[in-house]
Design a protein that fits this description.
421 residues, alpha+beta, GIY-YIG endonuclease, 3 domains, seven-stranded mixed beta sheet, 18 helices, 13 strands, 19% strand, globular
Length: 421
């Protein structure tokens, strides 16, 4: 693919998570990879970054690529699962060549009264320990190349569909049972049929059938509501919410997060978002990216205290006012990004003037455009934002999404604990 054609194709790629496939002149799949942002990830190959970090093979891959295909997913977790399925299906040259089959890993749902989900390497299947029926007759999903990412993925899945993970047929001394990660099948905490339903949902998820799970859960929730089984209906409701708001930031690799430093070292961007339900449990988030990479130690969360009802602009004003009061101990950002439209920007400018902020801080508001496929930027004229930052929509979108995720996570935490404030 000519460089000009590749760059034009990359501009057309979505910024969402998903899987990308590189095909050659014979339409054979050369490589499959997953991405947090498809556009940003593919751009790394055709800008030479992958060749620098991973060697000459990546240059050969790029030179042989004539077609770039992408498949969007709702989350990085689903991209991880789809990537494994496509690698298994196509056996791409640049994924397979030079790999040691013994290093591949699999999810296995064991064959037991109350099955477990375990991660096994290829070599585990030839060991005597794993020749027992519970492993040999279990369901396998894979192969995967990163056991570390599989462990992270399994923790995310288990929060949605809990399961027992110990070889002992008892919940005695089980910390997971105490914190709700294990439903307690051997202690009578869940029926065998409900436990099996959890395992079926995990199996469906690992084969890429999230939509089918959501449809089944909605049917179950309505059925429980009709029979006034409200506790069971609430379980389904929470599982639906968790599946549609998967928190998978931990699956973002450092490579996925490498973004430009905007022409100067140490550029600090802060993004803010508000989360609530009809004005209840209103909270806000502040996330920080330094040189395009999340700086989680600098994250902050706020309970909105002085706003009643649904008024996101007023809530944002309260939060930004409190943030300005912490410039000396939290540090000073180069740019503050408000999740919202023109009204949020006008509020921010007025607040900066009212509080006589004399720091050279860029201010912008970010909102999804009419098509929902790109973000619209609203820029303050109080202090200009660097052109390199404005043009890097991938970074702006990434930090906006992270602020949204962090706000929702805090809101859910307060709501589930039933805090009133």
């Amino acid at each position: 693919m000519k460089k000009a054609d590749a760059l034009q194709r990359i501009k057309e790629l979505p910024q969402s998570p998903g899987v990308y496939l590189y095909r050659d002149a014979k339409n054979q799949v050369l490589y499959v990879g997953k991405a947090t942002s498809l556009r940003a990830r593919v751009r790394q190959y055709f800008s030479g970054q992958e060749e620098k970090s991973r060697g000459y093979r990546m240059k050969l891959l790029v030179d042989q690529t004539v077609q770039i295909e992408v498949r969007e997913t709702d989350s990085v977790l689903e991209a991880l699962i789809l990537e494994a399925a496509l690698i298994k299906k196509f056996q791409p040259k640049y994924n397979i060549d030079g790999k040691d089959d013994k290093s591949y890993c699999y999810f296995v749902i064991t064959y037991e009264d109350f099955p477990r989900v375990v991660i096994l390497r290829q070599t585990d299947f030839i060991k005597k320990k794993f020749q027992t029926p519970q492993y040999k007759r279990g369901k396998m999903f894979g192969p995967y190349t990163s056991k570390e990412q599989m462990n992270i993925a399994l923790k995310i899945i288990r929060r949605i569909f809990p399961f027992h993970n110990r070889t002992e047929h008892s919940e005695k001394g089980c910390l997971d049972y105490q914190i709700g990660m294990c439903p307690g099948p051997y202690d009578g905490g869940i029926s065998k049929s409900d436990y099996r339903r959890n395992m079926r949902n995990i199996s469906l998820f690992l084969t890429g059938h999230k939509k089918k799970i959501l449809k089944n859960l909605e049917v179950e929730m309505r059925r429980h509501a009709r029979t006034q089984a409200f506790e069971e209906a609430d379980v389904c409701k929470k599982q639906i919410y968790a599946l549609t708001h998967i928190n998978d930031i931990a699956l973002m690799s450092r490579r996925d997060q490498q973004l430009p430093s905007f022409g100067a070292p140490g550029v600090r961007l802060e993004a803010y978002d508000i989360s609530h339900i009809s004005g209840d449990y209103m909270v806000a988030s502040m996330v920080v990216f330094v040189d395009g990479v999340p700086s989680k130690r600098a994250y902050r969360k706020f309970k909105v205290k002085a706003v009643e009802g649904i008024n996101d602009v007023a809530a944002m004003r309260e939060v930004i006012g409190r943030r300005i009061g912490h410039f000396d101990d939290w540090g000073v950002p180069d740019v503050m990004i408000l999740d919202g439209g023109k009204g949020h920007l006008n509020m921010g400018e007025k607040l900066f003037l009212d509080l006589e902020v004399d720091r050279k801080i860029g201010l912008m508001a970010v909102a999804k455009g009419p098509t929902r496929k790109k973000v619209d930027l609203f820029l303050s004229h109080l202090h200009p934002v660097r052109r390199a930052i404005i043009e890097d929509r991938d970074t702006i979108e990434a930090i906006r999404e992270e602020a949204h995720r962090f706000a929702i996570a805090y809101h859910k935490q307060l709501r589930h604990k039933g805090y009133l404030y």
